[in-house]
């Protein structure tokens, strides 16, 4: 499980996470919503150790992410992250792009890496695209390739940062369906999202971030149906 305890994070004099507490259990799906600049992306990058923290503690299955002794490369294999945009290697096919990390990071033999890449690409509905170059695919297909690439490392946790927000509206559904499938398979996920229907539908809990604070967290029914915090109410009114 992921345990976030009183985490504070600043960029220079700007404190962007002001004491975040959140525990995500195995198999749980937690969505994070909130306005731009509220600290959502920063939290994800702190969880997988891409960013240091100023105070507090994040542990993943008991391993303290920011402890000096922690092997961050090992930890990141366990925690996959997919961003709004991933720049695939344009000179490599879709299959080769997905094989790259298992080959380079895990030192996997070519045949084994290929087997895993084919499996994960099929899983996200791209079995027909193995030998295509990424630039020849739609944005939705490219995002599904990015998800397959993360899954090829056999992560136990997945972090998604607004993976649909750069997409044409008509391509959003196929990517959300892929996330939903992963959730149904029991993947532990934290999803930063603008898609309120998705958050409501797929999450066990939804957290609302406001100015570096987790202002409210609850079940989808609680958070969307009966928000308690005035800032949550304001935010939800603005996105409806
Ligand atoms: P969100 O994802 O909720 O939109 P972010 O976590 O990206 O918010 O950003 C929170 C705040 O931190 C913003 O004010 C942003 O400008 C600032 N910030 C994010 N990353 C950096 C950085 N690398 N250097 C300086 N400021 C940053
Ligand atoms: Mg963000």
UniProtKB/TrEMBL annotation:
Instruction: Give one GO term, molecular function aspect.
Output: ATP binding
UniProt xrefs under Gene3D superfamilies: P-loop containing nucleotide triphosphate hydrolases
Membrane topology for this entry?
Answer: Peripheral membrane protein
Q: What is its main location?
A: membrane
User: Which domain of life does this protein belong to?
Assistant: Bacteria
Location in the cell reads: Cell membrane
Task: Give the range the annotation lists for the signal sequence.
Answer: none
Residue ranges of domain ABC transporter in the record: 2-236
UniProt keywords (A-Z) are: Amino-acid transport, ATP-binding, Cell membrane, Membrane, Nucleotide-binding, Transport
Q: Which family does it belong to?
A: Belongs to the ABC transporter superfamily.
Q: What is this protein called?
A: Amino acid ABC transporter ATP-binding protein
């Amino acid at each position: 499980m992921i345990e976030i305890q009183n985490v504070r994070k600043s960029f220079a004099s700007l404190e962007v996470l002001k004491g975040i507490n959140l525990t995500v259990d195995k198999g749980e799906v937690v969505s994070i919503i909130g306005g731009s600049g509220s600290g959502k992306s920063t939290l994800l990058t702190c969880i997988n150790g891409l960013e240091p923290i100023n105070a507090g503690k994040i542990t993943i299955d008991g391993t303290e992410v920011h402890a000096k002794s922690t092997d961050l490369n090992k930890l990141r294999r366990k925690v996959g992250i997919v961003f709004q945009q991933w720049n695939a290697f344009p000179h490599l096919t879709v299959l080769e792009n997905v094989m790259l990390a298992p080959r380079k990071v895990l030192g996997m033999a070519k045949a084994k890496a290929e087997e895993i890449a084919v499996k994960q690409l099929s899983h996200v509905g791209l079995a027909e695209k193995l030998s295509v170059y990424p630039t020849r695919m739609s944005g939705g297909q490219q995002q599904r390739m990015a998800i397959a690439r993360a899954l090829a490392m056999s992560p136990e946790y997945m972090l998604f940062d607004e993976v649909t927000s750069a997409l044409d509206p008509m391509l959003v559904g196929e990517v959300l369906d892929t996330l939903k499938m992963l959730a149904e398979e029991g993947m532990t996920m934290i999803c930063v999202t603008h898609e309120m229907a998705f958050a409501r539908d797929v999450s066990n809990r939804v957290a609302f971030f406001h100015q570096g604070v987790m202002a409210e967290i609850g079940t989808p029914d609680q958070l969307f149906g009966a928000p308690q915090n005035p800032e949550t109410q304001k935010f939800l009114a603005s996105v409806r």
